[in-house]
Amino acid sequence: MSTPQPPTIDPSRWCQRIASITTTSSEQLRLNYIDCQPPSDSKAKGVLLLIHGFPQTSYQFRHVITPLSNAGYRVIAPDYRGAGQSSKPLTGYQKTQMAEDLHILIQSHFGIKEKIHVVGHDIGGMIAFAYVSRYPDDVSSVIWGECPLPGTSYYEDVKGTPDVFHFIFHRVPDLPEFLIAGKEREYLKHFFDKISYNSAAISPSDLEHYALAYSQPGAIRAGLEVYRAFEKDAEENRNWKAEHGKVKLPSLLMNGKEFMLA
Fold this sequence. Notes:
The protein is α/β, with parallel strands linked by helices. Helix content is 37%, strand content 18%.
């Protein structure tokens, strides 16, 4: 059986911009994003916020942005803090802060006050949980997956297994940056060749796109800081659950059949 081919990318309605936002701690941040409005003759179904994972950017969603928009959704796909064309500060990679960044983007930059649908993959799933748990009144539903959530027993069970060796490696101070510098393409290729189910889905040009993104000054360090924040994330998630219980929103778990941690 032949491998299904992704739909042809149609970026004709995409608007790609960089927003300047100010966080609640008065931090100035630039967030790159793609905004795709639905066709004028479609029935509006709301706003979809798509949150990418590592080692990717908003480019991860290139094949689904237009189809989702054609279905009636306004699709917003940002590069989160530290990734792509967004700012790469030294700190602020706990997922509650990264969720706050995106909440400010939606509420203040776009002026969207209606409830939105939040979709997160991999690291984006962790950010999605932080978003919907901290801002439940601003969310209609959440779809997330392919990520063990810090603070859960599942995360504790898998964080030291060989399949996710990078959970430990990325958290070592300074050494990963030293070893990866100048070899970003080779390191990212490992993820797509060895960790993904269908490595053929990432073309040479896709790999080059991500390699260039993570070869920018500060980009790999920022990507590693996302992992170095996991224990703080775990603490915050445990405390939040102890006080509030489970998230009480329509939720859908998104995992592939051959997800390596299933």
